[in-house]
Predict the structure.
Amino acid sequence: MHVDWKHVAVALAILPFAVVFAAWIGFFNVGASSGHWKITDWFLHFAMRSAVRTYALAVDTPPELPSHAVQTAAGHYARGCAICHGAPGEPRSPAVLRMLPLPPDLAERVDSWSDAELFRIVKHGVRFTGMPAWPSERRDDEVWAMVSFLRRLPALSAEAYRDLAYGQAGSLVDRPLTFQQALAECTRCHGVDGRGRSTATPVIASQKESYLLRSLEAYAEDRRPSGVMGVVARAVDRRHWQDLAAHFAALPRPQGREDAEAALVEAGEKLAAEGDPLRHIPACLVCHGSQDRNPAFPSLAGQPAPYVEQQLRLFRDGLRGDTGYGRLMREVARPLSDNDIATLAAYFATAELPQARSIESARDDEIYHPRGPSDR
Ligand code: HEC
Ligand code: HEC
Ligand code: HEC
């Protein structure tokens, strides 16, 4: 067959203009009601699966999914995902059933993806589908927690889901307007007693009121990145923040937890009380020791070890964000090894904190640049 290359070239040159013209006269139906052509549907899914598979190759999968954070992820799922994907015992809303593409029932889908692929989808979302990216780009740990939750979804009963996601609150209020509704929102993850329903959630009972309030502001304004708390802080009306902070600050202080290894706790206690001048690590208790110091310095006694470890890693990696005083902590965390972090977390989880020297009596340069032998 003779091919007239001149004609082919002209046709190819005209094609883009023809497509723009067709779009301009409204040839392409963008209505969702009639669905995609079969071929478009096939192609879009083919492209999506291939892209996810390829980009997931670059994902660093942790050796173990963070099962201790499943409750928090379930709590976030209820606010951030169930509206489109439904949840055990809660079918998708009729409005969502008319979306194109339809957000799938994830319990039926998760088994067809690897952990790295789920991570990729949940962190970055899917273009042209309505599937959103994770609210904070800097919190891979939260995304892994969600992957850990998604893995459990297929086997999760309606009761087990309700307990995980809502706790004693029993349900989710879309727009918490009254103080009681706002408080119920917090108890879904922090518990009615403010001690945290999982070890990924900080104790906020008896924490300093001003630190709690400033932290809520920092989350809402994204100065402290967290997909989970960012969404919650924005969902709850600002005028309740002060009362919520006061409420939790007034709850009784938790007992120290006793399940840590004695050797870890001992090493952590020494480092917290004395620091390590050789490695430029200041004594933590100078700032975190007793109740009556700068209200911007949070109390750490009785915080769950996994939460403390995670926060220290975030500080060390420069990802923690803060209420305005985080520069101090980033300096402090930089020289910490993984082992230091494990011992410190074990100590603070069990600690009944001694009254350490107050911040006023410690000199500033002593805190930031503890003296090593070479400086003497
Ligand atoms: C506004 C609606 C919407 C929200 C909110 C939403 N998604 Fe999606 N999601 C979608 C849509 C639509 C798809 C289908 C994409 C496709 O078919 O290519 C999807 C796909 C997915 C997939 C891939 C499933 C598959 O096999 O195609 C996963 C996993 C997922 N979402 C998890 C989540 C998680 C976790 C959240 C909450 C953090 C969430 N989604 C929030 C709409 C949503
Ligand atoms: C879906 C679960 C969830 C809900 C609901 C929730 N929180 Fe949180 N909260 C968390 C997690 C997880 C963190 C730790 C986030 C991080 O890594 O920064 C946190 C952290 C906090 C902190 C910082 C504490 C510290 O020690 O630094 C405050 C303050 C806080 N939450 C208050 C609230 C209040 C008030 C509400 C109700 C309006 C609420 N939270 C609702 C899970 C939740
Ligand atoms: C110079 C004072 C100072 C010293 C010393 C210090 N911290 Fe902090 N730390 C802070 C401040 C201020 C914050 C609050 C940051 C913010 O969110 O604004 C904080 C926050 C933290 C948090 C997060 C608490 C939470 O609820 O999220 C942890 C964990 C922590 N510090 C551990 C340590 C450890 C461990 C040491 C010792 C190695 C240490 N800190 C030494 C000032 C200090």
Notes: The pocket of heme C (ligand 3) is lined by residues 202, 272, 281-282, 284, 286-288, 296-298, 300, 308, 311-312, 322-326, 328-329, 332, 344, 367 (CB under 6 Å). Residues 262-375 form a domain with the Cytochrome Bc1 Complex; Chain D, domain 2 fold (CATH 1.10.760.10).
